[in-house]
Amino acid sequence: MHKFLILTGLTMALSSAARAVPFQRQDAGESSGFDQILDNPQEPLYGVELVSLFESNVEGFGDTTIDEIGGNWEFAYYRIPNMGHIAAALAAQITLFQDSAGVGLPDEVLKLALDGTLTWRTDRELAYELGFQPGLYTDLEDFGLDALAFPFSVRVIRSFAPELSGVAGLEIRPEFITVVRPQLGITWAASDYVWMQIMIPESRALWGINDQWRAHLSAEWNNVDYRVGDKDGLKREGISLEDIRFAVGVTYQMSDLHHFTVELGRSTQRSVEFETSPPALPTDFDLDDTGFIRFVLGGPF
């Protein structure tokens, strides 16, 4: 619960920040059917990223550095006339631990998942969305079909005005230690230069400086589980990685098709939880807060 309170508190603070040009604000009266969440997404169609979390201590045992290499590609989008749309993307991420830190951390874990959504728009203001994220969540050194997981989500999306939309829903992950995560918040295009997402699990405030540059603040709650093998003689079976990340960044629009983002941030409320552990060790460990840097090369928004 304390993670919810920290994240919610930051999202309120973000409401005084911003991004810009152009955000298709669609002032009231211009388009009564426009929805900021569905019709004005701020996620690129494709992209690759590198994240480096600086060295930190694992609850008095040892130190480790964590690197993440990831990518996404929305390869299909089909609009159903007068009903909604179907979208599908691939998402991949490799997380590398530079040291086992004396607690049996794996060398590398992989997430390779299909991210599909089915959206049904019942009228000009209300929509229902069903999401599926089936895939492999696995230790690269102990690859097996038991690493298949089938998270899914259900959401209700409401457009209160052309510039303001809200969402409420649940992400349900039967194979994970944290089975249910809420999805709750609002998206607001305050002007043509300001776009904000005040939401759990991710909040952002974006400000368009000019046609090529924009800046942002963000807060994100990350929680992912993986099936892992034995390490250093320790039987583990599963691992859950969790943290909350606060960041500030800038994006340069290199062309209509490509952009580059640099981000600096702080990873807090960090923990590692194992499914099983020998009697001499606990199943969960806290990690020290640490800084991180993130680079993204992406496609059009």
Word description of this protein:
- By secondary structure, the protein is mainly β.
- The protein has one domain.
- It is built from two helices and 17 strands.
- It has a 14-stranded antiparallel β-barrel with strand order 1-2-3-4-5-8-9-10-11-12-13-14-15-17.
- Strand 13 and strand 14 form a beta hairpin.
- The longest helix is centred in the N-terminal third of the chain and has 13 residues, at 2-14.
- Mean pLDDT is 87; it is low at 1-22.
In a nutshell, what does this entry contain?
The chain has 301 residues and is mostly beta strands.
User: Compute the gyration radius: what is it?
Assistant: 20 Å
Query: In sequence order, what are the helices and strands, one letter per element?
Result: HHEEEEEEEEEEEEEEEEE
Percent range of helical residues: under 10%
Number of domains: 1
Features:
mainly beta; 14-stranded antiparallel beta barrel; 301 residues
Layout: helices, strands, pairs:
Blueprint: H1 2-14, H2 36-39, E1 46-58, E2 62-80, E3 84-97, E4 108-121, E5 126-132, E6 135-139, E7 148-149, E8 152-161, E9 164-172, E10 180-191, E11 194-200, E12 202-208, E13 213-228, E14 237-253, E15 259-274, E16 284-287, E17 290-298
Antiparallel strand pairs: 1-2, 1-17, 2-3, 3-4, 4-5, 4-6, 5-8, 6-7, 8-9, 9-10, 10-11, 11-12, 12-13, 13-14, 14-15, 15-16, 15-17
